[in-house]
Specification:
It is a single chain. By secondary structure, this protein is mainly α. It has a domain of 45 residues. Helices cover 36% and strands 8% of the residues. It contains 3 helices and 2 strands. A two-stranded antiparallel ribbon has the order 1-2. A hairpin with a 2-residue loop joins strand 1 and strand 2. The protein is globular. Keywords: DNA-binding. Pfam families: HTH_17.
């Protein structure tokens, strides 16, 4: 039997965190997620492995800073 897909709400409840944390972890900490249209879907076994491997530990990873754009103007 194949593992069912879970929603953001189900994963948040499974991990005991807010849904906002799930979205942040997808973006900043590479939480294993698959986008289906506008919705994120998860395999709980992948999420559990990510947690065991330390994916949810510590603070947020710093966002990658982009270099500032050069200002145009008269020199």
């Amino acid at each position: 039997m194949t593992e069912p897909w879970s929603s953001v709400d189900e994963v948040a409840k499974h991990l005991g965190v807010a849904q906002d944390s799930i979205y942040r972890w997808i973006e900043a900490r590479d939480l294993p997620a698959h986008k289906s249209g506008r919705l994120w879907r998860f395999k709980l076994s992948e999420v559990d492995e990510w947690v065991r491997d330390g994916g949810a530990e510590g603070g947020e990873k710093p966002a990658t800073k982009k270099p500032p754009k050069a200002k145009r103007g008269l020199s």
